[in-house]
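Researcher: Please translate sequence to structure tokens.
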Amino acid sequence: MRRLFNFGITIAAAFALMVVSNAPSQAAPRCYSTVQGNASGLGLFGVGSEKARAAAIRNWQNTVARQYAWRYARFGQAREVVWDCVQGVILPTLCVVGARPCRY
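Model: Translation complete:
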């Protein structure tokens, strides 16, 4: 009888551990301080801005990957994103992005 009781307790404990380990993690993101990326782009009717923004994101990702790791270089997970783009009429569009790299 005692052996059956111990077996039941073991099964219940294993089940409780399984339920706890499968629960979604509510851990806070791990973030670093703000990193900047910058770039320029040429083009008419907003194409230069698009190119500059895309290049600034790539520059930000490469900078973050060099400083921290690739797992932090996902721009979609970055926090506190700030853009500053200056469109030029004849000169290229210049964009600077600042964001805190985070991972979950």
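Researcher: Any highlights?
Model: Residues 30-103 form one domain.
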